[in-house]
Amino acid sequence: MMQELRERVLAVSKRVLGHSVLGPAWDFHCHLLPGVDDGLRSLQEARAAIEGMQALGYRGAVLTPHIYPGVYDNLPGQLQEAVHDLQQRVGDDFTLRLAAEYFVDESLFEAIERDDLLHLPVLGHKLVLVEYPMLQPSSCADDVMLTLKQAGYQPVLAHVERYRYLRWDRDSQLARLQQLDVWLQCDIGSLVGQYGRGPQQLARWLMERDLVALWGTDLHRVEQLQRYVAPGLAVLQRNRFRINPMLIDSVAG
Q: What is the pLDDT of residue 24?
C-alpha cells in the first residue's frame, strides 16, 4: 500500500507540477514524527511520507509535533530523542529539524518562563510556531504573543486561514497580528480547498498580497501529498512563489 502511495505521489508531481517544486524546498509545519500526536502513526508511514515529499522536491522538513498540556504532553527532551532516531532510520537524504506547534493557552506562559521552547533559529530569529483555538479566540492570545517577543522569540501563527473568527473580522484581526509582529503560516492544501471554501479564499487572498511568511504541508497523513499538497504547490508555482526560501540556507546546514 505504501509503495502504491509513493508511486501515486510521484505521478501527481509530474502531472500537476511538470516536475518537482522550484529548487530544493523545506517544509515548515508537519507531523511526520510517528506516534507522538495526531500525525503519522508508524515508521512505515513516515518513510512513505518522506519519499513522497522528496518526489515533490522537498529536501528537508521542520517537524512541529503538538505540545498541548493535557492533550499532547510531549516533552522537549523526548521529542529530540525521537527526531534523532527517525533521522537515523530514514538516512541523510532528507534532513529533519525539530520545532513544535504550541497551543496558545495559559500554560504557555510557564513554558516561556522555563525557557525550554522548541524553536527554529532562522536569520537571527527564534521562530516558535503557535496555534490558536479553532472555535473561539483565546483571551490570553495577545499577552502570549507579547511575552514571546519580550523573551526573544518570533511567534509564527499556524494555519492562519483556518480560524473562522479571524476570517469573519479579517482586516482588524490581521492588523492586530501585524501590530504584534506575528508572522503568518498558511497550509499549502488550503489553496485548493482542503479545509473548505472559507480557508481557501483567505489563503489565496494572503498569497496574492504576499503576506505569508512560511508555507507548510501540515502533513498528518500520506494521502494529503497527492490530494492537496501537490496541487497546492502548483498554485504557488503558477504565482511564482518559492517555498520558504528563508529556510534553505539557514536550516539546511
A: 73
Pairwise CA distance, residues 107 & 109, whole Å = 5
Asked whether 199 and 162 are in contact (CB, 8 A), the reply is yes
Q: Say whether 232 sits in a helix, a strand or coil.
A: helix
**Domains, the chain:** 2-247 (3.20.20.140)
Task: At 58, list the grid cell.
Answer: 522537498
d(CA 61, CA 125): 18
Cell numbers representing residue 192 in the block: 485548493
Q: Give the number of other CB atoms < 10 A from CB of residue 172.
A: 9
Bridge partners of 27? 61
Place of cell 508511486: 7
End-to-end CA distance of the chain: 34
CB 41 within 8 A of CB 205: no
**Are residues 95 and 247 in contact, defined by beta-carbon separation less than 8 angstroms?**
no
Rounded to whole angstroms, the Cα distance separating 58 from 20 reads 8
Asked if 80 and 98 touch (Cβ cutoff 8 Å), the reply is yes
Question: What DSSP character marks residue 239?
Answer: T
For residue 67, what is the enclosing H or E element?
strand 66-67
Q: d(Cα 5, Cα 53) in Å, to the nearest integer?
A: 12
For the chain, 253 residues long, the average pLDDT of each consecutive 10-residue run is 56 54 81 98 98 94 97 97 98 97 97 96 95 95 98 99 97 98 98 98 97 98 97 93 82 63
